[in-house]
Structure formats: C-alpha cells, structure tokens
Amino acid sequence: MSIDQKVFITKTNHSKLENTDLINPIFGKVYADHMLRCDFTKGAWQDMKIIPYNDISISPANTTLHYAQTIFEGLKAYRNIHEEIVVFRPQDNAKRMKLSASRMCMPGIPESIFMTGITELLKLDQEWITNHPGTSLYVRPFQIAMDPYVGIRPSDDYTFMIITGPVGAYYSKPLKVKIETNYTRAVVGGTGFAKTGGNYAAALKPAIEAQKEGYDQLIWTDGLSHKYIEESGTMNIMFIIDGTLITSPIGDTILSGITRDSIITIAKDQGMKVEERPISTFEIIQSIEQGNLQEVFGVGTAATVAHIKTIGYNGIDYELSDVKSRKYSLEFLNTLDKIKSGIVEDKFGWIHKIN
Ligand code: COI
C-alpha cells in the first residue's frame, strides 16, 4: 500500500479523556480528542491532517447542505486481550466507501489514505479504547462536497474526515420492530446500497410514526410490491427458520453490511445452511404461526447483533422472545467478540492491528 500523502499531526493541549466515562459511553454523543481531515482540491487528494477535534467551517452555500452529496462509513476499534488496538475489517469499509462515492458522483478516497488515516488517528487516541465488555471506539469516516455553489452539479472540491467516539450498545434492549408496507426506503436504480445521508433522512418520518405506535425500528419491504423483506435501515435483518439462516440478498436497495457478511461467513464455517434469497412477509408470518421461526435479529456495525423480540405486521404484534431462545444469534455474537478480542484465531483475516 503506497501513499504519496503525508500526515501532519497537531496534538490537543486539552484532552477530554479524564472527564469521559469510557465504561458506560452513550452511542454517538462523545468524541475523542482528535480528528483527521484530507481535502480533495484541484483534482487531487492533498496531505492528511490530524488536528484537535473541533467544529469545522463551511460556506452557507455549501452544496452538501443543500443537495446532500455526502457519504459515510462506520467501523469499530477494540483493545484486545493482548492490549493491542485492532480494527474490524477496515479494508471492507474502504471498498464500500468507494462504491458509495461512485454512486454519489464523488472522487473515491484511496484505500491507502483511508487506512493510514485510521491507523494514525487511532495510534494517537488509543487511550480512548478500553477492553471493557461491550465497549469500543466507533470510527466514523465521512466525505462531503465542499463547493460554495447553489446549483445542481457534482462539487469540484471535497473533504474526507474521520472522527471517533467511545460507544456502548446502540440498542440497549430487545427490539419491537414494525414491517413497513407504506413508505419506501429504496428502489431498484436508487441509492439504497450507498451509505449516503439522504437515505437516512428520508427514513426519519416513517421511523418516528412507527415509534408513536410503540415500535423501536422498522423493517423495510421492497418499494414495488411491499411483499419482500429488505433491511432495517440501521442494520441488515436475519431469520432462522428450521435451523437455516435466511437473509435478503444484497443489491441496489440493500446495504452490503460487513457484519452481515461476517455472520454469513461464520454460519457457513460452522456448517449451518445459509440462504441469501428474497424472503416474503407471508413466509415470515406463516413460519411464526407454524412455530418454525426460531430467531430474528438485526446485524450491523453499530447494532452488532440486535435481538428482535416483537414483529408488527398489518396491525398485529407477533411476540417471538418468550417462545424462542437466542441460541444462534448469541453464538454468532460470541464468535465475533472472541475474534475481535483475540481469544480465538482470526482465521478469516478480519483483524487489522494498529500498534
Ligand atoms: C453503522 O452501523 O455503523 C451505521 O452506520 C448505522 C448507523 C445508523 C449508526
């Protein structure tokens, strides 16, 4: 991995570390001492800068603010049992970010900058990472258009940044989810597979409406027939039916989740039958009624493996938790945790060591 860009580091004189609770961090509220910035100007990526975490200045005419030419990623860093700082599958995030960039007409961040940026930033802020169970340092790379131009065309200039923050569980309790059949998250030919802000903004209203009905999250269905399960928006969705792991295939409308891929890999490795295929709401409800649906869970970087205990569909709530155990999802979570913490061998080559 060769890299032409240099990294210039300015350290903070006012670390927030001492006043931060690293044992019970709240997701998305606290940020570590430094951030990385790399600008794309005059058609090229410039040198990287690591600077104290702070607000950034942008023009009120900034094109991202008006037309949402923006993408992001999410990954996690851990302190393993050998006191090493490790990151889970960062190269896969770098690849996915390039795909998102291409869809949003942005220059892709080279993997060398992505990886060097994460590595140098985490070296500097490694004291923010503890090995307390359930905690990690969430790493949020993002890229925004920077032209001060109120007109519709791709920006010329961009800024790539990485911020990090200590996090615990994204979902602190089992979830009650509603299968959404009115609103649409993504359509074939759209941006559903890209990690771009607009996908999340458009999902807010349906999610708030579901929350008013007592649900924590939505499960999206396809935009055409609303008959097939897609994803939840914060995570991919998996079902265990008669001992088979079933999940919707990735494509235009479903994010290619890295945790999703990891669990499929682990399940296959453990000899489990895995089906990536369209799964209908009819099949889900039928398998609940027939008692074949053993587990439903969400999988994502932030969510890790999230237990779903209730599914709402067409005004009926189907309770899953009291009849079914969490045998499979807890086993997957456990295996992932052991790989990340260095308890078992990283036989899939997922761990990137920082120091
Ligand atoms: C992640 O899982 O890292 C995400 O980006 C999802 C986000 C809604 C927190």
Q: Provide the residue-averaged pLDDT.
A: 95
Structural class: alpha+beta
Strand content: 25-35%
Beta strand count: 17
Oligomer: single chain
Task: Specify the biggest β-sheet.
Answer: 9 strands, mixed
- The gyration radius over C-alpha positions equals 21 Å
- Count of runs of 4 or more consecutive helical residues: 8
User: Which stretches of 5+ consecutive residues score pLDDT under 50?
Assistant: none
What does this structure look like?
Strands 1, 2, 3, 4, 5, 6, 7, 8 and 17 form a 9-stranded mixed sheet that branches. Strands 9, 10, 11, 12, 13, 14, 15 and 16 form an 8-stranded mixed sheet that branches. The longest helix has 14 residues. This protein has 2 domains: 165 residues, D-amino Acid Aminotransferase, Chain A, domain 1 (2-Layer Sandwich), CATH 3.30.470; 167 residues, D-amino Acid Aminotransferase, Chain A, domain 2. The chain is built from 8 helices and 17 strands. By secondary structure, it is α+β, with helices and mostly antiparallel strands. The two termini are 17 Å apart. 23% of the residues lie in helices and 28% in strands. 2-OXO-4-methylpentanoic acid (COI) binds next to loops.
